[in-house]
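pinned: reference chain
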Amino acid sequence: MKLGTATTRIALAHLFVAALLLPFPVHADDDSQLAEGARVFSTVAGVGCKTCHGEYAEGDVGVGPYIRGATEGAIRAAIDATGEMIVIKSAITEDEIKAVSAYVGSLGTMQAVRTLAKRGRFLPAEVSIRPGTAVQLIIQNSSIQPHTFKSDNLGIGEFVVAGRSSGSVEWRAPEAEAEFSLYCTDCKLKDQFFTVRVAASAKEFRPVVSVSSATDDAM
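pinned: its structure tokens
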């Protein structure tokens, strides 16, 4: 088939449209590897990477550092050289190292945006992000009861966050300035909103590009 034919042009157009409709985020690694990486991050050796590095790899528990976007080389070096990781080293498999590296690498492409939901209120109640920014929106539920969260204009459906836990959704801000909101559907207060303002004046987020290298020292 020649590239100049009408049939080929139509097929290429269909492929282009299909690419535009792919959900964000699009990673080189397939979804199953990222899902496996998230599992390993939370559970490996019965403690998970999150015990030291935080649930979303932000280094917010006062033990291990921020590792969102860490490379496979850095992760391997840390497993081999960090004494505190001997438990991980004795349990993790080669495939699990690759999976958790892909997962942590994917986190580096997104700006982590947090809010605490308490009795229907959100702390902070609003954030500002730059247009086009990839976001991991993290909701911390302070209640002992699970709660359901929803947005009418973020393009995400209802999602439940367990009590005394957190949940996250991935989203990309539009290129134009706009305002979005999210609320709790079953909290005591139902007229409170978490607002995401997309503004050119917001602080720029620079994604971490994860490129494997045995010489990396990001960990």
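why pinned: The first helix runs from residue 6 to 20. The two ends are 51 Å apart (CA to CA).
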